[in-house]
Amino acid sequence: MGGAVAALESGVPAIALSTGGVTTPDPVTTVNASGPTVDFAVELIDRLRLRAPRSGPLLPPGIGLNVNHPVVGADGKGTAAGVASTVQDPQTLLRPDLTDAGDGTWRMGVQVDPRPAARGGNVEAVGAGRIAVSPMSADRNTGPVDFIRTASLIAGLRP
Description:
Elements: H1 2-9, E1 15-19, H2 27-51, E2 64-69, E3 83-85, E4 94-100, E5 106-112, H3 122-127, E6 131-136, H4 144-154
Parallel strand pairs: 1-2, 3-6
Antiparallel strand pairs: 2-6, 4-5
């Protein structure tokens, strides 16, 4: 995500791609799920190429895509339940855990702070086994027009 945001800040269209949801699944299962994630990314890029003007950009200026692919099946190699045009869930999933060490220093860790997923958000879609595709800009969120464009772009796209 950070690389895609940095690209967008420089005016370069980008796609952020991730596998998995909020919880930490087994690493082997996540690696196995990378195959279906990459397969979907190839399909998405092919779709972008078909819809782009001849020799034109694949995405509108300043707009990127945040793609979150679920881990499906016990081995991670399953097929997602579909593709959803989503918004990025605005909730903070991690919270700092500060502990006074008693010697004038503090230890900092991170705790997962799960909350109900926002309706129509990427966390909700991935939790339901669907691939979430959210438009994003350098400030990470976009407006309703970009959401509609993204929904139109992925209409009919399958995992």
